[in-house]
Design a protein that fits this description.
357 residues, binds iron/sulfur cluster, four-stranded antiparallel sheet, 2 domains, alpha/beta
């Protein structure tokens, strides 16, 4: 680990130098929001936002991705033969990833890079990427990262952590990938020896600014079927309009659907992000839908993140506390409220309530 001091001009020069060896992505303001974009020559990441509207997951896992092409032209020898699209990814850097979003990548990796399933598209893109985090000096009112396995200065999933202190950036290199990027960018001035204490002060203040919290300590001990049959799901789902916003903005949601599109005699097979909040997500060809009601779909989303994942991996919740789904849900459905209800749910007292009513 090396702690480097980067002044404004060295930062700008370094990003431009890095672009000759990497594709560089960073937050850019678009209309009223910031989004991660591939930075053009001369374009700099804009850190004047608490976080981007969409998470950086699309840098590794695009919203739509072509997997195969084919021809339906009977006169050709390769008619109806699927041709895999080259998916090699050149080295790339994601700059300005907040620590909550950085933690999401190792969480999602459990799904895409496991003994049961190897998703070569995701794995190649992940391995080609250097993650440069940006510590949060102050949290939003909806952030609860400190309850979700990380914090405003969290380092998990990152190759470099940047800390802003006025006009100066400090870069903490965390992995060989991070060291390689720093060398390529020409960031090499060691920080003064007293900087560590200053960064520790900033970290303590940032952690204190996270005022929202959830309790997750009892989720693992709950009986799965008790939670599944808990009486609060219908009430919580009453206002949900199944728009899917919560899943699309979430850095830890990973579901996709595979579809064919044909134009004339040529076709593509692609995958697109999907959402368990959509009625069609589980619609069978027979017409039957095992999650016909919206409370069943909402229950699936929260049971997956806060119970199935917890039971399967015994490694925290499938949520990093970024707060996007809270900020952007049009009807104010709040994962913090539902998580607290699940964590404190007592099936016995619930059964007594029903018996005595
Ligand atoms: S964002 Fe809100 S309304 Fe839309 S699907 Fe999610 S919980 Fe339902
Ligand atoms: S569930 Fe909500 S708060 Fe948690 S990581 Fe996803 S968008 Fe962020």
């Amino acid at each position: 680990m090396t702690l480097i001091k980067i002044d404004r001009q060295t930062w700008v020069d370094g990003i431009e130098k890095a672009k000759s060896a990497y594709r560089v992505f960073g937050p850019v303001k678009e209309n009223n929001d910031h989004e991660f974009k591939l930075l053009a020559k001369g374009e700099m990441p804009d850190f004047n936002c608490q976080n981007t509207r969409m998470s950086p997951k699309a840098i590794i896992y695009p919203q739509s991705q072509i997997m195969f092409t084919y021809s339906l032209d009977e006169s050709k020898d390769d008619c109806r033969i699927m041709k895999e699209v080259e998916n090699a990814t050149s080295p790339q850097v994601a700059v300005g990833v907040r620590p909550c979003d950085a933690l999401a990548f190792p969480i999602v990796r459990r799904n895409f890079d496991s003994p049961e399933y190897q998703d070569t598209y995701w794995i190649k893109a992940y391995e080609a990427t250097t993650f440069v985090g940006l510590a949060c000096n102050a949290a939003c009112s909806t952030c609860f990262c400190t309850s979700a396995g990380t914090g405003p200065f969290g380092e998990t999933g990152l190759d470099i952590l940047l800390v802003q202190d006025g006009d100066t950036l400090y870069a903490k290199t965390l992995t060989p990938k991070g060291e390689a990027l720093a060398a390529s960018a020409g960031w090499s001035s060691p920080a003064a020896s007293d900087v560590s204490a200053r960064l520790e002060t900033l970290k303590t203040a940032a952690e204190a600014s996270v005022t929202a919290a959830v309790s997750t300590d009892k989720l693992k001990d709950k009986v799965l079927l008790d939670l599944y049959e808990a009486p609060f799901w219908e009430e919580e789902a009453f206002s949900c309009i199944n728009c899917g916003t919560c899943t699309y903005v979430c850095p830890t949601c990973w579901c996709f659907d595979v579809q064919d599109e044909t134009h004339g005699k040529s076709g593509i097979r692609m995958r697109n992000w999907d959402s368990c909040m959509f009625p069609l997500f589980t619609h069978h060809a027979s017409g039957h839908n095992p999650r016909h009601n919206n409370y069943e779909r909402l229950r699936q989303r929260f049971m997956h993140k806060l119970k199935y994942y917890v039971d399967k991996y015994d490694s925290g919740i499938q949520c990093v506390g970024c707060g996007r789904c809270i900020r952007l849900c049009p009807v104010n459905i709040d994962i913090r409220r539902i998580c607290d209800k699940m964590n404190s749910f007592d099936a016995k007292s619930c059964a007594c309530d029903v018996a005595s009513s």
